[in-house]
Amino acid sequence: MPLLEAGGIRKLFGRLVALDGVDLTVHAGQIHGLIGPNGSGKSTLLKCIAGAELPDAGSVAFAGADVTAAAPPVRARLGIGLKFQITSVLPALSVFDNVLLALQAQSSIGALIRSRARNALAPQVEQLLHEFRLANRAGDLAGVLSHGEQQWLEIAMALAPGPKLLLLDEPTGGMSLEERRATGALLRPLAGRCAIVIVEHDLDFIRDLCDVLTVLDQGKVLESGTVAQIQSSERVQEVYLTRV
């Protein structure tokens, strides 16, 4: 059974049809890339999966449960994590405390009141910071990190609750070539713990990272398949030559 199954997703913004009958299937452990021209509906599809937007038609099933109308916190508790395109770290808090807060979202009120959560969760925070090359920045304010480091911090925060599915919206936006390569190296091992759906414009980055690609164009699925299948598709080549 697929981990995520979105069927016939349609989303309107006034007269604008952002998504028009989009299907998306993601399996456990899979890194699934969403590509396509600007305005093709990629970010809107992620929001419909996460619950930030509700589809006007269609359905979203996650881990066997119908979550089409579920609120974002419900989906998060089921195991859907989301990192938006715009970084939303807390700049006035330390790098350590940003990740700690993401972990504390799972703690009981009693544990938080008794201040036991910080010490108990410290090893998990330190492990995540180590994985995302931020261990030596733990005490620094998040606001002084470079753009790339803030992106890594937010991915670590999204990963902290242990999602089964991690949604990433342009995680390398604004990064240097070196930072993009480093981000790819950080994301590849994550497939062992959760599935990933990633929106990207950097075709080299996403080609080297993903198992499956789905191409959106004008709110519809143009093609879906392996990287090799997408690369050889004349329809995809036409879109990228004429509209990207």
Task: Write a structural description.
There is one protein chain. With 244 residues, the chain is α/β, with parallel strands linked by helices. It has two domains: 162 residues, 3-Layer(aba) Sandwich (Rossmann fold), CATH 3.40.50; 55 residues, no CATH class. The protein has ten helices and ten strands. The chain has a six-stranded mixed sheet with strand order 6-7-8-3-9-10, sandwiched between helices. Strands 2-1-4-5 form a four-stranded antiparallel sheet, covered by helices on one side. Helix 3 crosses helix 5. The longest helix is centred in the middle third of the chain and has 15 residues.
Descriptors:
alpha/beta; Rossmann fold; 244 residues; globular
Overall strand count = 10
Please outline the major beta sheet. Answer: 6 strands, mixed
CATH class of the largest domain: Alpha Beta
Element pattern in H and E: EEEHEEHEHHHHEHEHEEHH
Uncertain runs: none
Provide the helix percentage.
Answer: 25-40%
Q: If classified by CATH, what would the architecture of the largest domain be?
A: 3-Layer(aba) Sandwich
Stated plainly, the CATH topology of the largest domain is called: Rossmann fold
Structural class: alpha/beta
The overall number of domains is 2
Shape: globular
Please state roughly what percent of the residues sit in beta strands, choosing from under 5%, 5-15%, 15-25%, 25-35%, 35-45% or over 45%: 25-35%
Distance between the termini: 35 Å
Gyration radius from CA atoms, angstroms: 18 Å
Q: Taking strands numbered 1, 2, ... along the chain, how are they ordered across the largest sheet?
A: 6-7-8-3-9-10
Average pLDDT rating: 89
Q: Treating each run of at least 4 consecutive H or I residues as one helix, how many helices?
A: 10
| The CATH homology group name of the largest domain | P-loop containing nucleotide triphosphate hydrolases
